[in-house]
Design a protein that fits this description.
CATH topology of the largest domain: Rossmann fold
Distance between the termini: 22 Å
Shape: globular
Largest sheet: 7 strands, parallel
Strand content: 15-25%
Helix content: 40-55%
CATH architecture of the largest domain: 3-Layer(aba) Sandwich
CATH superfamily of the largest domain: Glycogen Phosphorylase B
Number of domains: 2
CATH class of the largest domain: Alpha Beta
Order of helices and strands: EHEEHEHEHHEHEHEHEHEHEHEEHHH
Number of strands: 13
């Protein structure tokens, strides 16, 4: 069996159980087809007053970290928020190399272009093996300055680039000069054993939600770029005329306290639930209890929660960013421009009153993580064969 080293900065952790879940699922399925070790590399930020990450919760997984179905090795490298951006890839690569060398892989796969796939590529170069970089979303769509420069360098250096949507593939080629023949689209799947239609009233009874509520659910990190301020503003506008409306924000993130203050200031206590980060089975219960899922992000790659909601037969209101258009059509939900709370409110109202065919929505989704793993393995085998021929 092929030996594959998977390098990632993201896996589910106690303070953020939704973070990196797609990488965990891919690695777990890939482990059924190859010998896989996951190298979970994490920046260890130096404690400097006033310098803390704005987009994700801090905290690192220790040596005792484990994730179901994968062989994982954790480690950290020193970093300073903002200031070490140009050196993070190099420092991470130096820490990564001896660990991967001991595993002796045939191929290295690095997710998140910079700094992590850059570190994986540098490591693979030292070991004389091919490297595949996996782009997930903002690491292609939202790049500027040093990040853009190192992203371009990584894309030029790796043997292949895997993107999770055709939109991202086009951006990689147009904006970062990725050679088209080396860019492969492998869209995400979903856990078919977890995300499937369930009885809505049974789920509501389990979660303590009123049977006549009109429930909207958001699932993801609680961060600004997910459009959560716009979502709360839109919900507040709608809730004034419809006392049955409820909203659940499922996830954790740096905005939690701000969102709680916004809910209180708008007088929406009791109508907005924030149950925290959850395992996939619990996420599926919230989705299946809802009338719709909404994802008003400013940027996305191929948002997995949209796939999971549709697999449950739940329609989606989402922003038309990244690869979202490749998932949603008029029979499954509504697409709107980002950062517009008025349009978001209108779309939510429209979707709540639309007669969706829930069974048809669920039947349209059938791509599993096994499909993702097979296609990822195909790319690994292609680059290895090309390297051997060369």
């Amino acid at each position: 069996m092929l030996k594959i080293a998977v390098v990632t900065p993201m896996l589910p952790i106690p303070q953020d159980r939704t973070r990196g879940r797609y990488i965990h699922e891919t690695a777990r399925a890939l482990s059924q087809l190859a010998t896989v070790r996951v190298f979970f590399q994490q920046p260890r930020y130096l404690a400097i007053p006033g310098l803390t990450p704005r987009n994700f919760l801090t905290g690192t997984a220790g040596a005792d970290y484990s994730a179901d179905g994968i062989d994982v090795e954790t480690f950290t490298y020193p970093a300073v928020v903002g200031l070490s951006r140009v050196t993070n890839g190099y420092v991470a690569g130096r820490a990564l190399t001896p660990r991967v060398r001991a595993f002796a892989p045939d191929v290295v796969v690095g997710y998140w272009i910079y700094p992590d796939a850059y570190a994986a590529w540098q490591c693979a170069e030292r070991l004389g093996v091919p490297c595949v970089a996996g782009a997930l979303g903002s690491d292609i769509h939202v790049r500027a300055g040093a990040n853009a420069a190192f992203t371009r360098r990584t894309v030029a250096g790796v043997d292949a680039l895997v993107t999770v949507s055709e939109a991202m593939r086009r951006t990689a080629i147009a904006d970062f000069d990725a050679p088209p023949a080396r860019v492969h689209t492998v869209v995400n799947g979903f856990n078919t054993g977890v995300f499937h239609p369930r009885d809505r009233q049974a789920m509501r009874g389990k979660l303590g939600i009123a049977s006549d509520a009109r429930l909207m659910v958001y699932v993801g990190r609680l961060v600004e770029s997910k459009g959560l301020r716009e979502l709360l503003a839109a919900f507040a506008a709608l809730s004034g005329t419809d006392p049955s409306l409820q909203l659940a924000l499922v996830g954790e993130g740096v905005m939690r306290e701000e969102l709680e203050r916004m809910v209180q200031a708008a007088g929406l206590q009791g109508r907005v639930a924030m149950p925290g980060g959850m395992e996939p089975a619990q996420v599926a219960e919230w989705i299946c209890a809802s009338d719709l899922l909404t994802l008003p992000s400013w940027s996305e790659g191929y948002p997995n929660v949209v796939v999971e909601a549709l697999a449950c037969g739940v329609p989606v209101v989402a922003t038309d960013v990244g690869g979202t258009r490749e998932i949603i059509d008029d029979s499954k939900g509504l697409l709107i421009p980002p950062r517009d709370e008025r349009v978001l409110a209108q779309a939510l109202s429209q979707a709540l009153s639309h007669p969706w065919d829930h069974a048809a929505i669920a039947a349209s989704m059938n791509r599993s993580w096994d499909d993702v793993a097979r296609e990822t393995l195909d790319v690994c085998e292609q680059v290895l064969a090309a390297r051997r021929r060369a």
